[in-house]
Amino acid sequence: MNASEIRFRLKPLMLPVAMLLGVLFHNYMGYVAFISPYLIFMMLLVTYCKINPGSFVVNRFVWSLLSVQVLGAAAVYVLILPAGAELAQGAFICVFCPTATAAPVVTGMLGGSVGLLASYSIVSNAAVAVLAPVLFSFMGIGVEMPVREAMAAIGAKVFPLILAPLAIAFLMKVFVPKLHGSVARHQSLSFYMWAFALIIVVGNAVSFIMSEPVGKVPIMLAIAAVSLFTCCAQFAIGRIIGGRFGNKISGAQGLGQKNTVLAIWMALTYLDPVASVGPASYVAWQNFINSIQLYLKTKRDASLKQMRR
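Structure for Transporter, as requested:
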């Protein structure tokens, strides 16, 4: 068995191992948390080098996913509110949260359309930057910062991570095509960077949950359970919508894989702090699903290799 085959077999195990390492070494993640944005930036740069600028489209697929993200979040909040504001807010942020900046990475690994998912990722994050302050105000939540300042704060956190690597990838294609082609051929780099970033994100989430008082445990467990339900539902609904447009993988990842780092920040800034347990636990649920999908994809690829021999 050569090095390539070993990496091929170990790949599906890397996400669960990364999550486990994050749990075990959560006390130390604060020292390396500053690396996360740079890892996400580099992951997207590698991924965007693979796609053609002409593949970016804003079509019915994008609008369908966006409608579920925004209207679904509002519906979930209204339905769960009678059971408690903390629970409703935790569920709301898990649905309203935009697509993860790393979603195109996983989509590419699973064989989906990176260009289509990247298009939705940009629209999804832009919609949250515009609508978040407005929706939080209608929900009756006391937003301390003015609407314009809140929009600027969210936008400043999201847009550079998404648009800068996209612009750099396109500039590389024009001015340094050889370097662009070399990066495009080494897509596996993004997976390893994502695994390392996952250690940091999971570690920080575990540290936050453990810092909460014991009396909050029942409501935190309830929020975590609702987070699991919303995660599974969004992957399933996204897959159904994607199937209508010939791309189940992009639909599932676009709606199901969330930017939990941004969601935790929004929850701590605008909502009851306990609501942040929703996106914090969503980290585990979505990466568990991603691990299963990558395992099944690797298994199918291995079977095809055997058949071709």
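The longest helix spans residues 277-308.
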